[in-house]
Each structure stands twice: as structure tokens, then as C-alpha cells.
Task: inverse folding
């Protein structure tokens, strides 16, 4: 994992940062140096980096410092645009299975209604836990959905094509991808502050990043996924489950006063959330031209969303339109996605050419 950050260039002064996370299985040639048995340190020619500094605690990101995580692998913080952004690392092993490249479709965006009866959201769901958060068991969802006829039919399509990604049809949100955990880990160690922040979990899938932000008292959290099925069957249930102790027995055996208290709690929580599905360009248009007030995001969290270079333009423009001028994006990714062609180098190059943001790599695992 290699988190990295971007900041705006030129007249758009202010802080923006993208963070990239990569799963790297082997030592990255020329750049990672073994520190003891497990830790690697990123070697960089960047003047803004401070490679000698080592700490076991993650730090809040600033543009001047470098943080080396002794207990994990290595990290460097975001660098100002005036220095070279170094995010060089060997391709990590991708676990992505893909179909041949096609152009992305333009799935219309929609905002999902939040159901009045939250217990219904968890019907037929089996919950598991990871890093202290509840999430729906995907196999059970897949089994249920493959038995029903469903508008998008992404489960059957994914199974019949033996693929986790079907360009323009299913973009992988049913499963939880590895870098989500890396980014959660990073945000926790960095003691990232969410209080009063407006946060977007972009390409959310299970939505664990957004749920983490909610748990840390973010003011508002929006969730976006390409597929409606993912929002209805995975993201929404996961959010509800994390405020109902995994759903339990649906509160059947609880005294009604406790049930009401819980319902009020979820109601309050849900008033902070919005859920969207659809293609990125469509999503940003919906937000910006919709009749609900929209304030730009302070933080955009996104994991494993730069696998397909065909989407970079839409992704970049969406972020440009939706991020506050003092905002920051944390992006977690593998170094390279075999078969699809995306990855950190090509994305950084793309960002550089667009000349709107600057990147800073803050952590490599
Ligand atoms: C590989 S999944 C990662 C899901 C989740 N972030 C995780 O780490 O587990 C990529 C996500 O990016 C989103 N995505 C990819 N391409 C998209 C596009 N062109 N428009 C909108 N969303 C897209 C999808 O919602 C999909 O769930």
C-alpha cells in the first residue's frame, strides 16, 4: 500500500491531497530499502521528504514531512507540486480478474431513498465483522440475488463471466477490496480528524471508509457506487448494521423504549448520509444540478478506483468539481492492475498532465 497525496497547482492554492495505497508484495527496486525484517523505507530524491525520521505512530498529513511506519512497510507524505512526486514502486500482484477492455458505459446516476423501516434493510442479511465494523456476508447476498431476477443482474453476470469487473456493467463493488483495509488502517493510525467534515466515499462498495468517517463523527457522509444493487444490498445494510449491533434479532426481543431509542439513533445517523449510484460524470451532474443543497467535500476517500485508465477523465473531473478548494482526497490503490492497465504511475502522469492537483505518496505497503 502506498498512500500519496495531491495538491492543487497554480492559482488554485489550498490543500488537496490524493492518497494512493498499493499492495506491494516484493521489494520495489531502487526505492525500498529493508529496515530490519519487515520494514522498508522509501528512498527518494525529494527534498521535501525526511527519510531519516522514523516513528511507530502515523502522523497527520502535512506537506512538509515524511513519515516512516516502522511497523508496516514504508511511507512518505504528500509533497508540494514544486517537488517531484515520487510514487515509484514495483507492480504489486493484482487479484483482479477482468474481461477485455471496453469503453465505460454511462450508467445514469440516482439518489437512493433511505427506507423508513431500517429493520427491512437487514432482512435476509448475515453479518460478519472486520476491524470492528459490521458488513454483510457477500456470499449470502450473492446467493439471494442469483435466485431472484434483479434489475442489474450483476451477480449472475459476474459469476458467468468469472470476473470481478465487467466494464460498464459491474465495477466490483460487491466485494471488499484489499486497499480498503489498508486505507482504514492508515486513517486510524494517522488519527485523521473527521469532526465537522463533509466526506465522500467514492466508489464505495461496502462503504467501510464512509462508515469509519461516520463513526469518527463526520458531519455528513455521502456514498457513491456505480451499481444500484451494491448500494441497496451492501452499502445501505452495512451502514444500518453498524448502528444496530449488526442487526441482532432486529430488536424483536428488546423493550420498546430501547427499540425507539435505537430507531432515533439510526434516524439521526441517516440524516447525515446520502447514497448514490451511477457513473461518475453523471453523479457529479446530479449533485450539482439537483434541488438539494450541496456543499463541496472536505474529504474524498476512495479505494481501488484507478484500475481502468478509460475512467480517469471522468474521475478527475468529478473530483475537481466536487472537492472543496481546501479539500483532500485519500486514494488507496494497487501499484498496477494487470489486464486493465491502470495503476499509480499512469494515474499520476494523468494528474500531472491535467495540471490541477499535485500528488504526495504517504505510505507504501
Ligand atoms: C474495485 S471496486 C472497489 C470498491 C471499494 N472501494 C473497495 O475498495 O472495496 C471499484 C469501485 O469504483 C466504482 N467505479 C469504478 N468505475 C466507476 C465509474 N466509471 N463510475 C462510477 N463508479 C465507478 C464502483 O462503484 C466500484 O465499486
Result:
Amino acid at each position: 500500500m502506498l498512500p500519496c497525496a495531491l495538491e492543487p497547482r497554480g492559482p488554485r492554492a489550498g490543500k488537496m491531497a490524493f492518497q494512493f495505497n498499493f499492495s506491494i508484495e516484493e521489494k520495489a527496486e531502487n526505492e525500498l530499502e529493508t529496515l530490519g525484517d519487515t520494514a522498508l523505507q522509501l528512498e527518494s530524491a525529494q527534498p521535501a521528504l525526511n527519510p531519516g525520521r522514523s516513528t511507530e505512530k502515523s502522523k497527520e498529513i502535512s506537506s512538509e514531512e515524511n513519515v516512516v511506519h516502522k511497523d508496516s512497510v514504508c511511507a512518505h507524505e504528500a509533497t508540494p507540486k514544486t517537488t517531484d512526486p515520487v510514487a515509484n514502486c514495483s507492480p504489486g500482484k493484482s487479484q483482479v480478474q477482468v474481461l477485455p477492455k471496453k469503453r465505460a458505459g454511462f450508467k445514469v446516476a440516482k439518489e437512493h431513498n433511505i427506507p423508513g423501516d431500517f429493520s427491512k434493510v437487514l432482512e435476509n442479511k448475515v453479518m460478519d465483522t472486520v476491524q470492528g465494523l459490521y458488513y454483510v456476508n457477500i456470499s449470502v447476498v450473492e446467493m439471494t440475488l442469483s435466485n431472484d431476477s434483479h434489475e442489474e443482474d450483476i451477480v449472475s453476470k459476474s459469476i458467468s463471466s468469472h470476473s470481478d469487473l465487467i466494464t460498464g456493467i459491474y465495477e466490483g463493488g460487491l466485494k471488499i477490496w484489499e486497499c480498503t483495509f489498508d486505507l482504514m488502517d492508515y486513517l486510524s493510525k494517522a488519527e485523521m480528524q473527521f469532526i465537522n467534515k463533509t466526506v465522500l466515499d467514492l466508489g464505495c462498495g461496502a462503504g467501510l471508509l464512509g462508515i469509519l468517517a461516520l463513526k469518527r463523527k463526520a458531519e455528513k457522509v455521502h456514498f457513491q457506487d456505480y451499481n444500484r444493487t451494491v448500494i441497496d444490498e451492501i452499502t445501505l445494510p452495512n451502514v444500518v448494521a453498524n448502528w444496530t449491533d449488526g442487526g441482532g434479532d432486529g430488536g424483536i426481543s428488546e423493550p420498546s423504549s430501547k427499540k425507539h431509542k435505537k430507531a432515533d439513533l439510526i434516524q439521526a445517523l441517516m440524516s447525515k448520509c446520502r447514497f448514490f449510484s451511477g457513473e461518475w460524470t453523471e453523479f457529479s451532474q446530479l449533485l450539482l444540478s439537483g434541488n438539494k443543497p450541496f456543499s463541496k467535500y472536505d474529504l474524498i476517500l476512495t479505494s481501488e478506483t484507478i484500475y481502468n485508465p478509460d475512467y480517469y477523465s471522468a474521475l478527475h473531473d468529478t473530483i475537481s468539481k466536487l472537492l472543496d478548494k481546501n479539500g483532500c482526497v485519500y486514494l488507496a490503490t494497487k501499484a498496477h492492475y494487470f489486464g486493465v492497465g491502470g495503476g499509480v504511475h499512469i494515474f499520476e502522469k494523468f494528474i500531472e498532465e491535467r495540471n490541477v492537483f499535485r500528488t504526495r505518496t504517504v505510505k507504501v505497503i
User: Anything to note?
Assistant: Residues 256-270 form the longest helix (15 residues). The chain has a mean pLDDT of 75. The chain is about 30% helix and 15% strand.
